Structures are given as structure tokens and as C-alpha cells.
UniProtKB/TrEMBL annotation:
UniProtKB keywords: Membrane, Transmembrane, Transmembrane helix
Highest taxon listed in the record's lineage: Bacteria
Source organism: Aneurinibacillus thermoaerophilus
InterPro entries on file: Spore_YtrH
Pfam families: Spore_YtrH
Regions crossing the membrane: 6-25
Protein name: YtrH family sporulation protein
Length: 102
């Protein structure tokens, strides 16, 4: 669970910071680009943390049809953990740019 959080967090944070560096090198406003990228990378942080595909969602459907709910709960916890990591990365970029939490 912690792994999913930090993978999603790292994708958003690292992508936004490196995108800001690229914006600086191409003479574009880096803070604006960082914030835009952080929001756009949120979904990709989740997808990357969950293994690069939406396999988790297909597994949930398959398990519900079988009637065994334990793997469903596990996958939902992984998805929530990845979402929280991606959202935390986005909020951290916004905090670094604005100096205040949003």
C-alpha cells in the first residue's frame, strides 16, 4: 500500500519538477508549467502505481462476478492509496509554487 502511494507521488512530483526545468530552459513560465503538469500527471501517477494498466479495475469486475469480495477490497485500497499519493504530489507542487496550501 505504501509502495503505491510513493510511486504515484513520485510520478507527479518528479514529472512536474522536470517539466518545470524544461520550461525554464525553453524560456516559458516554469511555475505555471509545473502546476499544469502536476494536474495532468495525477491520473498517470495512479495508472503507473497500479502497474501501467487498468488491470485492477478488470480484476474487481471479475472478482465481483465470482462473489469473493476480499480481493476487491484489497484492490480498492490500492487504488485509494495511489490516488492519495498522486493528489499529495499535486498539492505539494501547488504549495511550493504558491507558498500556501490550496
Amino acid at each position: 500500500m505504501v509502495m503505491y502511494f510513493f510511486v504515484a507521488f513520485g510520478i507527479v512530483l518528479g514529472g512536474a519538477i522536470l517539466g518545470g526545468l524544461a520550461a525554464f530552459l525553453t524560456r516559458q513560465p516554469p511555475f505555471h508549467e509545473m502546476e499544469t503538469l502536476a494536474v495532468k500527471l495525477k491520473i498517470w501517477g495512479m495508472v503507473g502505481a497500479l502497474g501501467g494498466t487498468f488491470d485492477s479495475f478488470m480484476q474487481i469486475e471479475r472478482v465481483i462476478l465470482d462473489g469473493n469480495m476480499s480481493p476487491v477490497i484489497k484492490q480498492i485500497i490500492f487504488i485509494i492509496s495511489a490516488f492519495i499519493g498522486a493528489d499529495t504530489g499535486t498539492r505539494m507542487i501547488q504549495w511550493l509554487i504558491r507558498g500556501e496550501p490550496s
